[in-house]
Design a protein that fits this description.
Two copies of one chain form a homodimer. In chain A, 63% of the residues lie in helices and 0% in strands. Chain A is built from eleven helices and no strands. The structure holds a DNA duplex.
DNA sequence: AAGCAATACCGTACGATATACGGGAAACGG
DNA sequence: CCGTTTCCCGTATATCGTACGGTATTGCTT
């Protein structure tokens, strides 16, 4: 599969930041609005996965003809961009507590977001749409980190690294939590394959460190628990490291 | 859009770990081998992007009929799985120096890998194919981290968190380094949109922290440089944090 | 030498998908 | 009532992945 999103960025921008031009009143009144299309697309992707979100099905779920969608959106890629920014706008970015509390709050919110919208992990996070959702997130993180006394470049890099880690970890965690419920691929197959792999194929002699970790109980947890632990430990370590850098500056 | 990879995991396993059954000699001799198909697919994706790697074009590049590919591979998803593991097998995992040196070596190798195979960022890293490449990587990381004296669960979580961060950061960096050279989307558009955005749309009053960071020169660097800085700083912080955890255990 | 079994090759056809095109319908102002 | 504007949507096309079934080429057996 490819990645979704990343339509013509100029088109996407125009849709994300609509100029407040009032409708002239002339012409046929719309049956659907852009907002409703995006909302319906998200609902469809939430329920059946991103692959099932086809223009045909989306139009049907709105009770309109397929080509009607193209009066409101230049193409599917731009629509996915809008879905992504709309999702980000759901984040509760209330500020409270120390910078660290704020970052951890962001991490939790991000987890919940991926839980609600599992399709987010199927959309590339590189070169995201420059919408209000993304900007609000950046603003939140930069504000939280700016209290640390790092240089502007370091603050920016720290923010980016947090975004990178948290997004990736949340996506992984959501994948395992949802456990293929919707992912378009039967989870039983995956588990069966995993079983077969460990019992039949895995060669302990060739991968001693893995064997050792297994023996020491490092893999006793379910994949979902393991992902959650990796999320927690990684975030803690990352923030500890950033805090230490700030300490050094003072 | 969508993500590639994630074919039937059982089929993929069978292909990743071929049993050493010698060909009987009977039957028509193959014109192509699985290895050649995977190599050609990677070359095609390297040059023209993953979206351009269609079964038709792949077959043509091998001088074979399209359906011939299906004698060697159950489907495209499985083929992408094989490409991914094959890419990971390119990592040079020579061990030398401290645990930290080893992790940093891994990070550099991973960067180079994404540089060579930009399409990797379009393939989901969740639930990766359990092939030799993935196992070698896990073994390398677990071995490096096992010297720290953490518990087995912590070691495993630390390894996972490093994988999460490094993969995501390397993918982001490669995206910006390649600068749309091949990504299937003209980079000029993106830059133009970015320009327009900052000059026309961005509202400083609404996003004070971003405005402040901009004013302080936090965005003076190119996106590629910024991504590289985020990679460096994030990895440093993450490893500092893990080292501190290990310190505390002793 | 002739038949047979096994294996690989591949042309054709089908269903799914995004979307270009162009005509038709509904509202408004004049 | 007519022209203009805006939106709706049926039809058609190009691109994919791949199911199906027939064909070609080899070694083995007799």
């Amino acid at each position: 599969m490819e990645r979704s999103g990343d339509g013509d960025p100029r088109q996407t921008l125009r849709l994300l930041w609509p100029s407040p031009q009032a409708r002239s009143g002339r012409g046929r009144p719309p049956k659907v609005s852009l907002d409703k299309i995006v909302a319906a697309a998200m609902a469809l992707a939430d329920r059946d996965g991103l692959a099932a979100m086809t223009m045909d099905r989306l139009a049907a779920s709105l009770g309109v003809g397929t080509m009607t969608l193209y009066t409101h959106v230049p193409g599917k890629a731009e629509l996915v961009d809008l879905m992504v920014d709309s999702a980000w706008r759901e984040l509760d970015l209330t500020r409270s507590g120390s910078w660290r509390d704020q970052i951890e709050h962001y991490a939790k919110q991000n987890m919940a977001l991926h839980e609600r919208h599992p399709w987010l992990r199927n959309v590339s996070t590189v070169r995201p749409p420059l919408g209000p959702g993304l900007l609000a997130r950046s603003d939140f993180l930069l504000a939280a980190l700016s209290t640390l006394g790092l240089s502007a470049a370091e603050t920016s890099a720290a923010s980016d690294s947090i975004v990178t880690f948290v997004d990736a970890a949340a996506a992984t965690l959501a994948e395992h939590t949802h456990a293929g419920r919707v992912s378009g691929q039967s989870d039983e197959d995956w588990w069966a394959a995993r079983q077969v792999f460990w019992e039949t194929i895995f060669d302990p002699a060739r991968y001693p460190a893995i064997e050792q970790a297994w023996h020491d109980g490092g893999f006793n947890r379910s994949p979902a628990e393991a992902a959650a632990n990796a999320f927690d430990l990684g975030l803690r370590a990352l923030l500890d490291g950033i805090a230490a850098m700030a300490q050094r500056v003072r």
